[in-house]
Amino acid sequence: MVGLSLGEQTFIKGGIDQDLRTDGRKRLTYRPIFVETGIIPQASGSARVKLGATDVIASVKAELGKPNPSYPDKGKVSIYVDCSPTAEPSFEGRGGEELSTELSSALERCLLGGKSGAGAGIDLSSLCIVRGKVCWDLYIDGLVVSSDGNVLDALGAAIKAALSDTAIPKVQVSANAPSDEQPEVDVSDEEFLQFDTSGVPVIVTLTKVGGHYIVDATTEEESQMSSAVSVSINRLGRICGLTKRGGAGLHPTVILDMISAAKHVSEQLMNKLDSEIAAAEACDEMES
Amino acid sequence: MAGKLGAAAATYSPSTGQRRKRPTIQTGSELARPDGRGLHQCRPAFLKTGAVNSASGSAYAEFGNTKVIVSVFGPRESKKAMMYSNAGRLNCNVSYTTFASPVRGQTPETKDLSSMLHKALEGAIILKSFPKTTVDVFALVLESGGSDLPVITSCASLALADAGIMLYDIVASVSVSCIGKNLLIDPVSEEEVHQDGALMITCMPSRNEVTQMTVTGEWSTTKINEAMQLCLDACSKLGKIMRSCLKEAASAPQD
Q: Which residues form the Exoribonuclease phosphorolytic domain (chain A) (predicted)?
């Protein structure tokens, strides 16, 4: 928790009122975003995203598993976020647990879509290998290395970058296996399939401070918030998920207003992120 | 209690004893709901306060097959380990009975229901009115029949009001499922399994303020608009029912 004096609080709020925040940004401007991919060789895909002083790592691991009997033609994706005490002393022990579950469920809601799989950023049916028998389980792990506000957006961006870095091995299924047994699969260690990430949304969090809302709030600004709405938006401008944080209530029209502002901001963020990911991947290839 | 049940028969009629088959759901363009409701029609609600005697306040809610009991304890002294705080603390816990779901013990993703309930309620409670103390809200889902969280939230706010905890307003919650092109209000479990998207709103009807809102699945802005309006209308109606339930309890002679 940040302890701010009354003067500092007024300064932050006053700045936001005048569209000039303490670090010189406008209300709807993001901090410079920095992306690095392929940082964890053991993972199928990984990325690190820095957003000002907020620093997060996301890794994607693919493992062979069995599909859920209720959805036999779909793979499984699980998202888990860890808040390391290196980021903030209050995350020590069970302190980070609450934030961890909040972030993981918000990310699941924003990225995995509805129960039937509609609107999911990740196409779950592409993870199926043999219907009802074998599928890929994607384990997406996020780690908060350093936290200076807006962790959710950074994690969303990191997961998007990690997924575009993800290479899933090609799988050969032996054709002559009896249909009632678990089929034998041969995982190739040379041929990989790239993951299609064009549908993965970006998450934009709008934080309401006083009468205005801002994007990409720092910890100081977050300490002054009354409520925040996180919207995940895909390339088509469709809303894929929404969560609200913070205790104060919001008027319905304000929420709709925030959604349209988030839509506008998401376009810029998506383009910026895509070019950053492309640059990071090019850089990664040059090294290897 | 029997007399009360009889009085409320206008909004709630108990189902007949015969065991019904689990209805199947078609996902065509013309959608028929498993329980024969209209698309924008909520399930009949039965609400009652004072379900648990030992609690400071409690409420029982029954929306179709979803049956929930919530008890509120406190305000009691916060644990010693907790730091001094000017505002009171709210502690929420949601649990399912093992027989709540069709498959025993298989409860639907309960991990964040407690924190969702906490977020939905904290905006409505005047926490400053009980400094240094904690209020416990325990919700138990007796039977899960779809739209569990909205029912839990509405029932919990009724229990808080019954306990005499100061609230800005009563909290009503309604969810909408999107299946194909259709919006279905107050979905049952069978519909929730097939849904393409879901939107849940928790609001304070007379203040017209949204305390919690979640969206899953892919939505266009116009669709969100429509769904929000649908939810808010239903919330204000539910708020009225909750209010009349509280009034009824207050005017009933104490026995």
A: 30-169, 199-263
Tell me if A135 sits within 8 A of A67, measured CB to CB: yes
- pTM, 2 dp: 0.83
H helices present in B8-143, as ranges? 113-122
pLDDT digits (tens, 9 = 90+) for A229-282: 999 888 888 888 888 887 788 888 888 888 889 988 888 888 888 888 888 888
- CB-nearest to A119 from B122, B124, B197 is B197
Sign of CA dihedral A31, A33, A34, A35: positive
Residues near B242 by Cβ (< 8 Å), separated by ≥ 6? B47, B154, B157, B158, B170, B172
Does B210 contact A234 at a Cβ distance shorter than 8 Å? no
* Minimum CA–CA partner of B122 in chain A: A247
Record: contact B219-A239, CB cut-off 8 A = yes
What local confidence, expressed as pLDDT, does residue B152 receive?
92
Half-sphere exposure of B226 (CA within 13 A, CB side): 14
Handedness of CA B72, B77, B79, B85 (dihedral sign): positive
Closest CA to B94 of B151, B49, B35, B47: B151
Q: Peptide bond before B75: cis, by omega within 30 degrees of 0? A: yes
What stretch of H or E contains A79? strand A76-83
The pLDDT tens digits for B92-144 are 888 888 888 777 766 666 567 888 888 888 888 888 888 888 899 999 999 88
Q: What is the CATH number of domain B38-246?
A: 3.30.230.70
Amino acid present at B107 = T
Cβ contact, residue pair A241, B216, below 8 Å: yes
* B221-251 helix and A252-287 helix, angle to the nearest 10 degrees: 130
Band (pLDDT 50/70/90 cuts) for residue B2 is: very low
First to last CA, chain A: 42
A10-287 folds as Ribosomal Protein S5; domain 2 (3.30.230)
